[in-house]
What we know:
CATH topology of the largest domain: Heat Shock Protein 90
Radius of gyration: 45 Å
Number of strands: 10
Low-confidence stretches: 439-444, 487-504
Structural class: alpha+beta
Order of helices and strands: HHHEEHHEHEEHHHHHEHEEHHEE
Largest sheet: 5 strands, antiparallel
Mean pLDDT: 76
Helix content: 55-70%
CATH superfamily of the largest domain: Histidine kinase-like ATPase, C-terminal domain
Distance between the termini: 93 Å
Strand content: 5-15%
Oligomer: single chain
Number of helices: 14
Amino acid sequence: MDESIDNTIDREFARATRLIAVALVALVVLEIAVFVVVFAVFGAQTAGQWLPELVLAVLFSVLLAVIAWTGLGRAHRSLGHSVSQATAQELRALRSANNRAQSLQRMASTLSATLSFERVVEQSLDACSLALDEMGIPRESLVGAVFLYEDSMLRPIARRRFLNDDSRRVIPGKRGVVGAALSKAEPVVTNNPAEDPELGDYEAFRDCLTAVCVPLRVGFQLFGAMVIGTDTPVQFEDDHFDLFKAVGDQAVIALQNAQLYQRLEAEKQRLIEADEEARKELARDLHDGPTQSIAAIAMRLGFARTTIDQDPARAKQELQKVEALAKKTSAEIRSMLFTLRPLVLETQGLGVAVDALLRRYSEADGIEMRLIGAENGNLLDKPAQVVVFAILEEALNNARKYAKATTIEVRFWQTEGLFVAAVRDNGVGFDTYDINRDYSTRGSLGMVNMRERAERIDGSLRVESSPDSGTTVTLVVPLDKHRPPAEEDALVVTDQPQLIDAGG
């Protein structure tokens, strides 16, 4: 680029020089021609009188050409110098922009290649050091940290030139330059970090003369802040702030992706643990139920076989006991299969499945159970019905085990675009404060499982109870996200019904 511009200037200068030379020659020729005409018309005497003027005119023309030539040369040199300076400045700006782009590209590449935000926030500090490089400040003088929220406090995660004590120190992020940056959602500079009410707590920033705080936030969600300091006074410009903002945006993207990934991993692990627990529970149920029953059947059959010839009446009694035990075992196995995934739920819907579950529990426990508004179960799509069934089953099992109830009622209804399912018993109840504070007090994480399942279908779960007043578990699911493809059979009930009294 420099060579091209210089060549253009040289060509234009040469052209101007040629024009001056041509103009000078033409002027001299014109003056001589005028003298010749005067000599031819008026004679030698008159022409001789014009000779001094001719000589002066020629000399003046030459002098004028010299002056023009000199001025043009100076202009050429000045223009070349100015162009060189402008070109050098432009090249510096291009190189700076290229360095920034490369740094941001490296951050973006890291972001796409890993879900570890630790690596990205480390690179964010490196990217911000580019601003110091442009000002001639060595990177070694950079003092920086990326602060992330942890229990409502900001903790330094990535650090530069931090002491051990500084690495363990946390700040609230409410005052000083950090508080200002987080509230304004834009970078804020302080020229006295040592006196800052929060940064001054860190020994690493006490020797700094300038520090800039870049907020890490998206919308109203705050992730933390990035602070860059130096022991040299710095006058940051707009393009530096643009760089800080771009780096902060990249870091926020990494944090969002990392959070999502961690949640998915946690959910995956929870599902694995839940599946393993379900397998263990099934194994225990098989061992304590059907397995024992089958062993008893085998023993009674063996006893009947040995006594059938000597005591046919006794053998007949044993066979009758075997028949009853076999029927009981068959019912237990069907119950287990129903719990795992009731076929009736897939074929006839939530209402029919819950009704069948209540009848089975009622026969087994002798507790009065009823379902009201069963047809409203068709308001939900199949995936949501499966989740709702699992929640209701857990709630019913809790009532059977702990409530000591004589009556349990399940009711479905719709109100204001919401599907509502409630399980109410007239049992002994409990203190919900203790349960919400520590689920282990009940010896089960059933309540946690129900709430987590409700969240999977964008729902919410509420538990209302008090000692000697029964318990009500209410599940609410938004219908706009879980309506079935066809709603011809859906019954709409708009008013919340009255549930059974705690006393019966």
